[in-house]
Design brief:
Elements lengths: L7 E4 L2 E4 L45 H6 L36 H17 L17 H7 L2 H13 L6 H20 L10 H17 L4 H21 L1 E2 L3 E2 H12 L12 E3 L11 E6 L4 H5 L6 E5 L2 E2 L3 H8 L7 E7 L6 E6 L6 E2 L2 E4 L7 E5 L14 E5 L2 E2 L3 H9 L6 E8 L4 E8 L1 E2 L3 E2 L3 E2 L10 E4 L7 H5 L6 E5 L2 E2 L3 H7 L8 E8 L2 E8 L1 E2 L8 E5 L5 E6 L4 H5 L6 E5 L2 E2 L3 H8 L7 E8 L2 E8 L26 H17 L5 H18 L1 E4 L5 E4 L25 H11 L6 H14 L1 H6 L15 E2 L5 E2 L1 H17 L1 H17 L14 H14 L15 H5 L8
Antiparallel strand pairs: 1-2, 3-4, 5-6, 6-7, 7-8, 7-9, 9-10, 11-18, 12-13, 14-15, 14-16, 16-17, 19-26, 20-21, 21-22, 22-23, 22-24, 24-25, 27-28, 29-30, 29-31, 31-32, 33-34, 35-36
Helix pairs in contact: 2-23, 4-5, 4-6, 4-23, 6-7, 6-16, 16-17, 16-18, 17-18, 18-19, 18-21, 19-21, 21-22, 21-23
């Protein structure tokens, strides 16, 4: 579905919903329709991304939409207000005066020492760094941006670059930091579906890559490789595909759309594994149970064994194994390595059985004693053409059926392709009918409960967000808001990311015993999953008029909507009996629809209401050979910023080049190509500044009319131009060379003062009402661009070398020294804190060259150095 009706701007990682909708396409309103009031501001906290990403493509039709029970406001990000203004009293800073002499080696050395000591003093007992923010930006969003993983990686990397200051203190601190990251990764505590998740993975990789190249301990290197492989996998799951949905989510949708007949279905080895704990989360996944008749039992796996490798990939704990198992298919051969106490270790190929259940798609109620009564058909039911609503089932495959449980017992044994003979009583005269139904593979299912996006606790499981609807399987079983779901069937649930993948292995109609914890008490209930809504095609394009009403712009020729009588300019008034006067009501009902479902739309056509009824056809998703996509602050964005994509590319290239992880180069080939194409697509020529090349923030920053230049002016791109150019140069396949990088560095030198102007600006919006860190009166520049722009220009200058590096080395060293705070820290911006600012300043100085990089003397002099005595000879 192609939609072009809403302005969606991303300012500094904050979703911004503009209430000023385009009026270029104003659809005529019915003459007698009543005015429709705009939804209150709180209703649009999660703005609809009205390209393919919103409407049934990347949000509604993903399992995460069901798991998270997405509603407006779930991300915690409030829209920026229309009345843009700057904080009271704020004025741009003048450009730094860099004409003076270089600071002395002693001055820079002392500054580094003080910064290092500040960072060391902020480390927590568990090895992490974290930041409590009180800035004027939304605290939840800002806190997610610099969570413990991101902050620990920032600080750890900064300390590694300055190990010479005090090896005796820094080395243990970095080791504790690395172990903290290991623990979070092994325990599955890096959720992907939260804001800024991309930075957790990108910075984590950057930090651990640095640790890898600075150790000769082969065991430690092996540990780092195992963790980095997990981080790379997570980062690739976050990559957007053609600015629409995460690339792996596209593959998931392709799989969902094909899972009906004659397709490979999920399977399991048949082991129950011990969930990881603080005391036991490495050394292999310990087997606590083996399911009777399973492939595991036939292979000889026993309780107490530890699975240490699957398909050539190291397994540290149950999470590692279960994340792999979610991709296993019936009929597949997998290779596993098992360790057994007392000897008897083995490595074997195991054939997985076809265990996915068959599906009739019949919805029944208990009836009145004669047998279950058919009250409806689930999507893609093979029984729909032969049975009728109201039929009473009294026999199945020769067995008498008196109650629903009898029918469920028959259904449990059905496999895809089985022919099931059902005998029913039909109509008022209760005539006997006998029909043979061929079962199909069950669609994926879910239980109807949402999940909190981020769980910072250490317990396994996931926390239920909101009370499930009473009619859902979860609601009927008694699940409540705040419960921690710990098991589904024979599988322990080990976090949000595990559940996200595990959801694809839940079969609709199959009963599962679900376990949860409430106020310390363990509880459980049986739930039969409802079918997951299947991707569908609406077969018409829609847009929005100036009253926020959804209307039809085009009807697909020969499609289901046209055949049912849908016409251009029809306005949606109802969906299946629910009034949808504006986008906000329409969207909620739209998300509930599924392929194979009969839907009735009431459309306003002139002064009349017209009913349009048709079955929603299944959407067919295919793997696109020509991908273009990068990394956004959150998949909801629907567009990938150039800056965050380039940062991920550089981290992945480093890992690929140096860590020698099995299969990594092959796994990264297409994602890196797609990311490079995305970055390249965001390079434009700034016609207002002599046609200079520059990299815009995102595709939506480009105004084809040239009227809105806020995101296109080269003066506003100096926080990201160097990193984008550097990423393409290092990719090596986009025709960008050292000469292009040198030009971009020269441009940065010319316009660097623009970064000085906003380095202390907190936000751009009315006081106390949230806003954006980007200043639209200063070419979209932001405070955080100051540090990042200087750091990545230093990296780019290293790439070019020679006089270019000498010039940038002097500029950046002078600039960093000039912006120190009185307490020796850097850029204590209230929206990202002193720790981030100081760590990034140490990143910049860590790339510098000069006499200050050595000569720190005996570490016992650090206390003196910190107090201002800088003589390295003491």
């Amino acid at each position: 579905m192609k939609l072009g009706w809403m302005l969606l701007a991303m300012f500094g990682g904050l979703l911004v919903f503009s209430a000023s909708l385009s009026t270029d396409k104003v659809q005529p309103l019915p003459e007698k329709s009543e005015p429709v009031a705009a939804a209150p501001q709180s209703d649009v906290a999660l703005p609809p991304s009205v390209n393919d990403a919103l409407l049934a493509d990347s949000v509604r039709n993903t399992p995460m939409a069901i798991l998270l029970d997405i509603q407006p406001g779930s991300s915690g990000v409030q829209p920026m207000q229309q009345d843009r203004s700057l904080p009271a009293g704020w004025k741009p800073d003048p450009p730094l005066n860099l004409s003076g002499p270089m600071p002395s080696d002693e001055e820079v050395r002392a500054a580094i020492v003080k910064g290092v000591n500040y960072v060391l003093d902020q480390q927590n007992e568990n090895g992490s760094w974290d930041v409590e923010l009180t800035g004027t930006l939304l605290s939840q969003t800002a806190d997610q941006a610099v969570d413990a993983i991101a902050a620990t990686s920032l600080a750890g990397y900064a300390l590694r670059r300055h190990i010479k200051v005090d090896p005796g203190r820094i080395e243990p601190a970095i080791n504790k930091a690395a172990l903290f990251v290991f623990d979070r990764v092994y325990r599955g505590k890096l959720p992907q579906n939260v804001w800024y998740a991309n930075w957790r993975y990108t910075l984590g990789l950057k930090f651990l890559h640095q640790e890898y190249i600075n150790t000769t301990d082969e065991d430690y290197q092996g540990e780092i490789k195992a963790v980095c492989r997990r981080l790379v996998t997570g980062l690739l799951k976050l990559q957007l595909s053609n600015s629409e949905a995460p690339a792996l989510e596209r593959k998931r949708r392709t799989r969902i759309s094909s899972r009906f007949r004659d397709s490979a279905m999920p399977s399991q080895l048949g082991v129950v594994l011990a969930p990881p704990t603080d005391e036991e989360y490495r050394g292999g996944a310990r087997v606590t149970g083996v399911l009777p008749g399973s492939a595991a039992e036939k292979t000889g796996i026993k309780v107490g064994d530890r699975i240490v490798e699957t398909e050539g990939l190291r397994v540290e704990n149950a999470l590692d194994y279960y994340m792999q198992e979610t991709g296993f298919l019936g009929g597949q051969k997998i290779n596993i390595k098992v360790k057994r106490d007392g000897g008897g270790d083995f490595k074997k190929d195991v054939q997985l059985a076809q265990i996915w259940p068959g599906y009739l798609g019949i919805k029944v109620n208990p009836g009145f004693g004669g047998g279950p009564v058919i009250e409806g058909f689930l999507p893609f039911s093979p029984a729909k053409e032969k049975l009728e609503i109201g039929d009473v089932i009294y026999e199945a495959d020769g067995k008498e059926i008196k109650k629903i449980e009898d029918l469920r017992e028959i259904e449990r044994a059905i496999e895809p392709g089985d022919k099931v003979r059902l005998k029913v009583l039909r109509g008022e005269k209760q005539r006997k009918n006998s029909e043979s139904i061929e079962a199909i593979g069950a669609p994926e299912g879910w239980f109807g409960f949402g999940i909190e996006e981020e769980d910072k606790g250490d317990d396994n499981g996931v926390v239920v967000a909101g009370d499930p609807h009473p009619s859902s399987p979860a609601g009927a079983a008694g699940l409540q808001e705040g419960d921690r779901v710990t098991w589904i069937g024979d599988t322990p649930i080990l976090g949000l990311d595990h559940l996200y993948d595990f959801a694809g292995t839940v079969a609709a109609g199959r009963p599962y015993v679900v376990k949860w914890v409430r106020d310390g008490e363990e509880m459980q209930g049986e739930m039969a999953a409802d079918p997951t809504p299947q991707p569908f095609e609406l077969t018409c394009d829609v847009d929005l008029n100036n009253r926020l009403q959804v209307f039809v712009t085009e009807v697909t020729k020969g499609g289901a909507a046209e055949k049912a009588g849908m016409k251009r300019n029809d306005i949606f008034a109802q969906i299946n009996g629910v009034v949808t006067p504006t986008l906000f009501e329409w969207r909620r009902e739209y998300w509930k629809l599924s392929a194979g479902q009969m839907v009735t739309f009431v459309m306003l056509r002139g002064n009349k209401e017209v009913e349009v009824t048709y079955e929603l056809p299944k959407a067919v998703f295919t793997e696109e050979l020509d991908e273009e996509g990068g990394w956004a602050y959150y998949p909801e964005m629907g567009e990938s910023p150039s800056f965050s994509t380039a940062a991920a590319v550089l981290a992945l290239i480093d890992v690929d080049n140096d860590l020698d992880i099995k299969g990594m180069r092959r796994a990264l080939k297409d994602p890196l190509k797609a990311a490079g194409k995305l970055i390249e697509s965001l390079r434009i020529e700034d016609s207002g500044n002599g046609g200079q090349e520059t990299y815009v923030y995102r595709a939506g920053s480009v105004d084809p009319t040239g009227k809105n230049r806020a995101g296109m002016d080269v003066k506003g791109c100096q926080g990201r131009n160097s990193i984008c150019e550097l990423a393409l140069v290092r990719l090596g396949s986009f025709g960008r060379r050292s000469g292009d990088l040198k030009k971009m560095i020269s441009q940065w030198t010319k316009y660097r003062g623009e970064l000085d102007a906003v380095k202390r600006m907190e936000y751009y919006a009315p006081p106390n009402r949230g806003g954006s860190p980007h200043n639209f009166d200063r070419n979209f520049n932001a405070a955080y661009y100051w540090m990042y722009g200087h750091y990545h220009t230093m990296l780019a200058a290293h790439e070019v070398g020679g006089k270019t590096f000498d010039e940038i080395n002097e500029i950046c060293t002078k600039a960093v020294m000039l912006v120190r705070e009185n307490d020796g820290t850097w850029l204590g911006h209230p929206s990202f804190g002193k720790l981030c600012g100081t760590s990034l300043a140490l990143w910049i100085l860590g790339e510098s060259e000069g006499g200050w990089r050595d000569g720190y003397g005996d570490p016992t002099t650090q206390e003196k150095k910190d107090s201002g005595e800088t003589d390295p000879a003491k």
